[in-house]
Amino acid sequence: MAAPSPDSAASPERGRVFEIRGFRFRLWPLLLAAAAMQACLVPARELARWIFRGGGPAWAPHVGLFVFLAIVLQALSGLAAIGVMRWLLPRADSHLRWPPERSRVGLALALGVAMGLIMLAADYWPDLVRGRAPEASYSLEPSIAGGWLLAMITTGLAEETIFRGFLVGMLAALLPGRVRVGRFEISMAGVLVALLFGLAHYESFLVDPLSQAIAQQLYAFAWGLVYVWLMERSRSLLAPIVAHGVGNFVEVASVMLLTAASR
Fold first, then answer.
1. How many CB atoms lie within 10 A of CB 230?
2. C-alpha–C-alpha distance, residues 216 and 119, integer Å
3. Strands, DSSP E only, in the chain?
């Protein structure tokens, strides 16, 4: 009798809609990742705040430039963290490379546009339903608006370096395992970091309406899953960086365009 082929042997597992493979939960790597996340984000942001305040009143309207400065400093902290990770945990893969095969940049651009429009609807649906321009504090003065748009398009440089490159790389080595829902499959580390990515946006509960803050948590988690899928499919950080930046850019640019159209 002929031996079963690998495809036929795997068919029962392939028939499952949801599956977790090779994962054993341990708390300490997750606590380490949460602490490392804060160590990358907070000092860089506070240094950017200190530098920005040193600019005096002339800088005050240019909040977008403060955000851009924080992004640059956080990207540098993420790169430094990846360097330490490569030294202490050589088996960890940061995906900090040019795509070796398909870049998935075209898909990332399309996903980024879709993400931006979804975030626009989730964040400003009460105004949009009423046919009003979103109530947001973005100035339309060219230099100020340009600073915001520059910050938005570069957001992925920091957040993808830290969250996907560093944190997913570290947790994938310390907490290996895969999760699959239908044909969508990523590392369990990617799911855990997507949760951390949502929690990193906790400040929305302090400054935004509750419905908007909850929406931001939900889509931040969902986008975190998409970003790690893009990273694993392309074996590079390039595609998630593009999708992340385009999504944020599309939302803020759409708000500005709607505001300008209503005047």
1. 27
2. 8
3. 18-21, 178-181, 184-187
Residue 137 vs residues 14, 131, 247: alpha-carbon distances, Å: 49, 18, 19
Q: Are strands 184-187 and 178-181 parallel, antiparallel or unpaired?
A: antiparallel
Q: Amino acid letter at 156?
A: G
Percent of the chain with pLDDT over 90: 77
| Interval 68-89: pLDDT, tens | 999 999 999 999 999 999 999 9
Q: How far is CA 85 from CA 94, 98, 142, 168, in A?
A: 9, 19, 41, 11
Closest CA to 171 of 28, 21, 22: 28
Contact 17, 181 (CB under 8 A): yes
Q: Across residues 128-138, what is the average pLDDT? A: 86
From CA 17, how far away is CA 20, in angstroms rounded? 10
Q: What Å distances lie between residue 67 and 18, 161, 165, CA to CA?
A: 39, 16, 21
Residue pointed to by tokens 């159209």: 261
Q: What is the mean pLDDT of residues 105-124?
A: 96
**Residue extents of the structural domains in the chain:** 26-261
| pTM metric for this prediction | 0.91
